[in-house]
Structures are given as C-alpha cells and as structure tokens.
Amino acid sequence: MPKSPLTGARIRRRRLDLGQKQVDLARICGISASYLNLIEHDRRSIGGKLLADIASALKVAPETLSAGSDPGDLTALRSAAARIGGELEPSVELDRVEEFETRFPGWAGLVALQASRVDSLERQVAILSDRARRDPAFAASLHNILSTVTAIRATSGILAGDDPVEPVWQARFHRNLYEESRRLAEAAEALADDLETGEGIDATGPLDALDAWVGDGSVLQPIEQGADSAVMGAAEAGLADGPALELARAEVKRRSADAALLPLAALEDALGEGLPDPFQLADRFDLRLGPILRRLGALPGANAGLAIADGEGTLLFRRQLPGFPIPGYGAAPALWPLYAALARPGRPETARLGPEDRPWERFRLWAVAEADGDEGVMGTLLILPEIGFRAGALPEARQNPRSNPGPADGRERLSS
Amino acid sequence: MVGRVLIVEDEPNIIEAIRFILSRDGWAVDTHADGQTALEAVARRRPDLIILDVMLPNRSGYDILSDLRADPGTEKIPVLMLTARGQSTDRDLALRVGASRFMTKPFANADVLAAVRDLTGLGPKVAEG
C-alpha cells in the first residue's frame, strides 16, 4: 500500500477529532505512546498491520489515512487562495496545500468556510442586484434619482464652467436646479421609505423562494424512491400558494419523470473516476442529452450546478455550485450556453469557463434545449468543476470532520 | 453651424442642459421626448448624430435604435446612447443593437461634447473629463 508522507498527520487529526488521547490509542494498538508520537509526526513510516490496527481503532478505512486529502477539500482551498487571496496569492504555498489541510485542519476548515461564506454573500449580492433589476418600483426610483442627478450635474456644470452664461440663461438654469433638487429630495425620501419598509424590493422572488425551500436538495431525494406525493406535500407545506409552489411542483414532476428514465443507482454505477461524459452516458442509456444533464445535476451531494429554463430563457430551477453563482436573470456568462442552446433546440452546446492557469477555477458546461411535451422547449444547463468533481457527498467523517462532540481538551470546533 | 444633433430624451432639464452645451459649441439641436416622433423627424431631416436615451415613454431607446439600423437611409447615423442604468448588460445590449457609443448617466458635459465631436468627426477635439 503506498504511503503518503502525511499519513501520520492524518492519524493525529482523526484521533483529535475523536477526542482520543495518544496514550489510549497507543495502548489499543499495542505500541508505545512515544512510538505513536513519532508516527503522528511522520518521523516513522507506517503500513501493513499496524496501519490497519490504527485505522480500526480510529473507525476509518486504512485508505482514509494513507491516501491523499480529498480533492474537493484541496480544490476548495486552492480556489479560496485564488479568489480571496487577491494580491497575496503568489505568496500562498499552493504546492503545500495538502500538507496544510492535513496538519492544520482547523485553519484549513476556517479558510474553506470563509471562502464559502464569501461565495454565499456574492450570491446574495447577485440575487439582490437581480431583484433590483426586476423590481419595477425599485428600478423606477433609481432611474428617477439618476435622471435628476444627471440634470443637476449637467446644469451646474454649465453654471460653474469658465465660459460666461448670459443672465437670462443663468436665471433659467438656477430655476432648473431648484426644481431638480426638490425632485431629488422627494425621490430620495421615497426610496428611503421603500427600503425601510421593505416595500421597494420584492425580497421573495419565486426562484429565490424555491432555492430556499430546496436548500441542499435533500428535500427532493424521496423522489428517487418514488415518494413523489410526499415531496409534493412538503412543497405545499413549505411554500405559499403561488409561483414558487408552481415551480416546485413542476420540478417534482420533471425529476420524477427523469428518475423513471434513469434511476439514481444505474447512473451512479455508470460513473467512473473523474469527470463524467454526458454524451457517452446518453449513448449508453439510449436517452436524450437533457435527462442525462438533469440527472447528473441532481446527484445528491455532488458538486454540480444545474439550471433549467423554459423556451423564453426564464429559469425554472437552479442548483448553485460554489464558485459559479447562477443568477436568476440577465446575460451572465454562466447562462450563455443555455441561451445559445435555446436559440438552437436539439443542438447541444458545450463550454469551458475559467482561467487557463487556474484549473481549479475552471468549469465545464453542457447545455441543450429539447422539446418538452406540449409545453414547448425546455433548456438544461449542467455545470461541473473541471477538476475535483465529486459524484456524491463526502463520507460523513470527511464531510463534517469537526462536527463531532468536543474533544477532551475542550478546544472549540468549527462546524461546517 | 458645425452639424445637426437630434436629442431623444424625456427629461426636459437634461434636454435643456445638453441643448445649451451643444448650441454654444455651434451645433444645431433638435429635441424629441418620444422615440416614434423622433424617427419621423429623422426621416424628414437626417441629423449628423442622435443622442438617444434608453428609458423613453412608449418605445424604448433599443427599439428606436433597432429601427434606425434596419433602415438603409439611417443605418449609418452615429448614435450616442444614454441610460441611467450602468449595468454591463445594458451596455452590451446597446452595442449589440448597434449603438456607436454608450454613456451612463450622470455624465460630464465635456464627455458629451467630446463624444459628439468624435463620433461625427466634426468640430475640434476636446479633452474628456
């Protein structure tokens, strides 16, 4: 079994996660605490029976200790370094990211958590901008204010300029300034009132409400076992009657039909290592590309993004992928392949987005628009990270390694 | 007269300010608050440049621009688009539809003057600022 130079650090990390003392683990494995200490600091190589014994005592597979860090974790850290590090990035030791993640799991978790929060905040900003653009009252208020400011700036620019202005024009422009300043004051007050009462911005667009209800997607998982009515009931309980509930019902119906075409187990069996090839899967299951994209985008726990739109390009469902926010509206690069596909139904579109020198920030996109029963055309866009794709959730111990009960030393643990 | 400019804008005080700036620089200026009447005016007398607001009553500035570009008699007229919304999507859309240049409100008077002179190739150059 190949041994990583960080096996000892992983043993130490796992032991601390379990809140186990070094001396106790050593006793269980029949070695001295000082020898275990050398192992944990990677000053002694380890393998074979001793590794198996330690793994058994730590309740993990030996491979978990000997194999490298999860690519998803490393991708998250690299991505954080690239996106948040900014000017610091050249000095971030990217070649030692695995060592950092293994030796300092708490700090690594903090970095990843911060990056995740930045992603979340960026998504919120995108959603708010999106709402501002869609909300007619807010857009009108903003337009009113900017128009008034434009008139004031242009008029005052004339009066304050070096070129002389005749008295009759001076008087006229002064009057215009007075009018516009009153208008500005009124518009600003109206906007402030709107913001204060929350009436100016629709805080719950249907797609946002659907996002909030779907959460991490687990609420939709019973569909895979045929429990559509239970999910439908949950949607009716969790969403007010209206457009968001309609979107939820449509998604349940769509996902149920897709699941009947391609059960989750069959798809998971067909997935190999690395990035899946949707075209190959479509051939293999003799299905159109659309259902394949939607099934891949619905894989529970996978790091996949998905957007489904009607023939007009209006989003009906989306699954966000960290590092690749999908806006609900607008000509964002994230949605271009989808719009391109909708312009040419039946012809798949593919794209790679992201910087060439940062593969961990690159994404692969597949989009297709296909006939959707009597309802016209439906477009589907799948987004996967070019490296570090995960077809399912991380094992519990790896997914949330710091959510175990507090260790004996009483250190506070991060929850992810 | 340096040249003729048509302003299509529905804010009277913005019209008045731009008209004053351009008139003082020697331009003949016509104004319209509605895009459709502006199109009819263009058909009657071709301006050297059109300053076109995006947010207009009835038909939007994009609609008007699209009509201008679809007509062989007006397709070459330089169009400076104005909008209160500085989003990149609006800029992209304006340029895709065929705007010669895009200016976001609020703008500096000198920028408008520079753009008019530059797009028409008429009048002396001024420093933008």
Describe the structure in brief.
The complex is a heterodimer of chains A (416) and B (129). Chain A is of the alpha+beta class and 416 residues long.
Characterization of this structure:
- The complex is a heterodimer of chains A (416) and B (129).
- Chain A contains 18 helices and five strands.
- Chain A is an alpha+beta fold and 416 residues long.
- Chain A has helices at residues 7-18, 22-29, 33-40, 48-57, 62-66, 71-84, 97-103, 105-134, 136-160, 167-197, 206-214, 228-238, 243-261, 264-270, 278-285, 289-297, 336-343, 396-399; strands spanning 305-310, 315-319, 349-353, 363-371, 377-385.
- In chain A, strand 1 and strand 2 form a beta hairpin.
- Chain A is extended, with a radius of gyration of 28 Å.
- In chain A, helix 2 crosses helix 3 (33-40).
- Chain B has helices at residues 12-24, 35-44, 61-70, 88-97, 109-120, and strands at 4-8, 28-32, 49-53, 79-83, 101-104.
- A five-stranded parallel sheet of chain B has the order 2-1-3-4-5, with helices on both faces.
- In chain B, 43% of the residues lie in helices and 19% in strands.
- The two termini of chain B are 24 Å apart.
- Classes of the chains: A alpha+beta (416), B alpha/beta (129).
- Chain A binds chain B through residues 133, 139, 142-143, 146-147, 149-155, 157-158, 161, 163, 169, 172-173, 176, 179-180, 330-331, and chain B through 11, 13-14, 16-18, 20-21, 24, 55, 84-85, 87, 89, 92-93, 105-109, 112.
